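quick one, 312 residues, struct below
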Amino acid sequence: MGSEVVEMRELPGVVSIREVGPRDGLQNEEPIPTEAKVRLLDALSRTGVRRIEAVSFVHPKAIPQMADADEVWQRATKVDGVRYSALVPNTRGAQRALAAGFTEIEVVVSASDTHNRRNVNRSTAESLDDIAELIDLLHGASAQAEVIIATSFGCPYEGDIDPARVADIVDRVVADGADRVAFGDTTGMGTPRRVRDLLTAVRDRNADIPVLLHFHNTRGTALANLLTALEFGVTEFDASVGGLGGCPYAPGASGNLATEEAVHMLHDMGIDTGIDLDALIGAARLAEDLTARPLPSGILRAGPRTALTPHP
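---
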């Protein structure tokens, strides 16, 4: 029986986590009061996290949990050193985000046509045409445009997604001027093998575009996926406090990667995030109180068993 030598790459020393609980997390929960959303956003701003997805500017009939986005953002305390972003579905949403003062704005397109139609009632190709115009709008207002490709690792309606299809979408949005791309594991179908296949397909064609990965822990693979991406040199990830969230248009896709679980693992590996894990756990407990249900984070249940600061 032969042996296979696996080349281990040096892992990055610093990772940037974007906290998405206030938007992606809460949009899949029962609506909570505006004051509660502001409390959670402010608590997260004090943890040392450097990026927060604060709100989304969507039609209240589509996502009623985000109906008070303008008020939440107006009332939130903006902390120096924290980059806040907003998600938008279309030009109208982008105009609202720009008017609110956001300079980092995300827009979503699904690699799966079926999921894209469920999400925004357009084909993937139609959404890409819209996004090209939206990128021009954002750049004209000196804002950055991030394109999130949902269902990058699989679709609840279509099943497996060919990495080449995702790479084709990246080709298109890079040509249209996207500042970065993100790959969403909308259904929690991602595994280390799928992460490896996707990153290889994309990097072979667009090695220089900044990428961010967004994992769900629906099937228990989020941390393994994050480690695989680290080995590919990825240093930007989404995570959600307490493991809040999911996707309203992907059945069974609840459960984002819990921020405190990611930070706990990264710090024990000697990788700095800039985040105070004690403060983050406190914010996760607050999220659990505000949503009035147990959250899936293992760190909330068991607590951290390693040092709370990066271990060299």
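The first helix runs from residue 21 to 25.
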